[in-house]
Write a structure and sequence with these properties.
With 486 residues, this protein is α/β, with parallel strands linked by helices. The mean pLDDT is 93. Helix 1 packs across helix 9. Helix 6 links the parallel strand 8 and strand 9. It folds into 3 domains: 196 residues, Isopropylmalate Dehydrogenase (3-Layer(aba) Sandwich); 126 residues, Isopropylmalate Dehydrogenase; 104 residues, 2-Layer Sandwich (Alpha-Beta Plaits). It is built from 13 helices and 20 strands. The chain is elongated. The structure holds nicotinamide-adenine-dinucleotide. The site of nicotinamide-adenine-dinucleotide (NAD) has 19 residues, from loops.
């Protein structure tokens, strides 16, 4: 006899409206016959208030490690310092590198100016300014490091193209700001151009993030799949959800090589908690993404179609209720029952759901190895905290030029990226944070011993160096940007 094995998933009811919308969502999954078994864990406010700064106990982590699938209700992060974002912790510790957020218009049932919108934003989830490496370096200047890696970029970009292929999407648009950040964002764009060549049947284009965001706000219908860096993705996914009116309805997936987490994009809505008026659609759409991920696209379509038919029939929760268009205002659980009653039906005014039934094959996101470039050290940027002589760059410059540094010469000083020595503009505002660039003669290589020697001499001058950055070439190509005016 064939055993019908259920897939075990980890479920967290969360805070605020979380328990109500989870109850409604699971009722729909069960009624539809999704072959799932739930392992319930506790996360969120009560765990934080027990003094666990991550909001998640070790048994919860163990459960995720075992089931690898996490259906999560929103949680409330308590006010005040010391609490770490549970989402960020889960993403980082389980390597959930891809945030996938479909944004669709459900006009006329949800008001939007863009009824044809159907796009998916794939956001890199682990790198960028979200690495959380920040320092205060001087009295006036703070720094947040933006780290972009080649494998991190390759992985998310491959994921975007594989996603497009699997779900029959036609175009992938990359968004960066590489006109300014030529190295970091430039790496992402260059990796995109290289990988795009492997997918000739999918159209590939690039937009600078500022104009790209404006276009999402003005003409979201022109986009299909968008792949971008962490911070830009965070911003544009909210812009897209807002302009299509789908903030309350959107689900999202955070996908890693092993573990994946599915949730609604909205928060725990404490203002309406416990009243049975919350809309469960966001979490339900998260659960639909989960079914697709689990290789149950038919089940995902069945539930999505019943949900759209419920919207079409005018059965609406208070947040989307419109006089004249809606036929009945319902609470959370009644809405779920209305969806259950429509399982097996399809929408007649909106396009039925399609999650690529052919797409059960795993995505090929394996990294391709590249030969290592020849790396050579040719200089060093020494950053100083300096607040003397009315911050006259010429004083600092001449002091550093007076050093006997054996072939390592001061080539320029910049302040906030602008050249101020030699021949700076007297109008340039100078903070107390100076970047002093030393380089060896053309064709020479710098040693670490020379670097240490330079720093000792700088210290003897009574200067406060706060950090250094090495200037490397890779196969002869500069691995550093030039100062403005260099
Ligand atoms: P929110 O999304 O919870 O609420 C914003 C507004 O939308 C509120 O008026 C709320 O009533 C309404 N709303 C949200 N979801 C709704 C639903 N399903 N049905 C009907 N109305 C809904 O955002 P917020 O108020 O800024 O945050 C509240 C809490 O949620 C905070 O503690 C925040 O940290 C947390 N939060 C958690 C997550 C998450 O767990 N993924 C995400 C965002 C915010």
């Amino acid at each position: 006899m064939l055993m019908n094995h259920k897939t075990k998933i980890t479920v967290a009811y969360g805070d605020g409206i979380g328990p109500e919308i989870m109850k409604a969502t699971l009722a729909i999954l069960d009624a539809a016959g999704a072959n799932l078994e739930y392992e319930v864990i506790e996360i969120g406010e009560r765990v934080y208030l027990r003094g666990i700064s991550s909001g998640m106990e070790s048994n919860a982590i163990e459960s995720l490690r075992n089931t690898k699938i996490f259906l999560k209700s929103p949680i409330t992060t308590p006010q005040g310092g010391g609490f770490k974002s549970l989402n960020v912790t889960t993403r980082k510790s389980f390597g959930l590198y891809a945030n996938v957020r479909p944004t669709k218009a459900y006009a006329p049932f949800i008001k939007t100016h863009f009824p044809k919108t159907d796009l998916v934003i794939i956001r890199e989830n682990e790198e960028d300014l979200y690495a959380g490496i920040e320092h205060r370096q001087t009295h006036e200047v703070y720094q947040c490091l933006k780290l972009i890696s080649q494998p991190g970029s390759e992985k998310i970009i491959r994921y975007a193209f594989e996603y497009a292929k699997k779900y029959g999407r036609k175009k992938v648009t990359c968004m960066t700001k590489d006109n300014i950040m030529k190295l970091a964002d430039g790496l992402f764009h260059k990796t995109f151009d290289e990988i795009a060549k492997e997918y000739p049947s999918i159209e590939a284009d690039h937009k600078i993030i500022d104009i790209g965001t404006a276009l999402i706000a003005e003409r979201p219908e022109i986009f299909d799949v968008i792949v971008t860096l962490n911070l830009y993705g965070d911003i544009i996914s909210d812009v897209a959800a807002q302009v299509t009116g789908s903030v309350g309805l959107g689900g999202s997936a955070n996908v890693g090589e092993e573990v994946a987490m599915f949730e609604a994009i909205h928060g725990s809505a404490p203002d309406i908690a416990g009243k049975d008026i919350a809309n469960p659609s966001g979490l339900l759409n998260g659960a639909i993404l989960m079914l697709v991920h689990l290789g149950q696209p038919e089940m995902a379509e069945k539930i999505s179609n019943a949900w759209m038919k419920t919207l079409e029939d005018g059965i609406h929760t208070g947040d989307i209720y419109q006089e004249g268009l809606s036929s009945k205002k319902v609470g959370t659980q009644e809405f779920a029952q209305a969806v259950i009653a429509r399982l097996g039906q399809v929408p007649t005014k909106m396009l039925p759901a399609s999650f690529g039934k052919e797409g059960k094959a795993p995505m090929d996101v394996a990294l391709r190895t590249k030969p290592k470039a020849k790396k050579e050290l040719i200089g060093i940027d020494v950053f100083m905290d300096w607040d003397q002589h009315h911050r006259d760059p010429n004083v600092l410059g001449n002091l550093l030029r007076s050093l006997d540094t054996g072939g390592l010469k001061l080539s320029l000083i910049t302040n906030r990226g602008v050249k101020v020595f030699p021949n700076g503009m007297k109008e340039t505002f100078c903070s107390d944070h100076w970047r002093c660039r030393f380089k060896v003669e053309e064709g020479k290589i710098l040693t670490h011993t020379q670097v240490i020697d330079l720093l000792q001499k700088v210290e003897r001058l009574g200067l406060d160096f706060i950090k250094t950055e090495h200037l490397y070439t890779f196969d002869g190509v500069k691995g550093f940007s030039l100062g403005q005016g260099e």
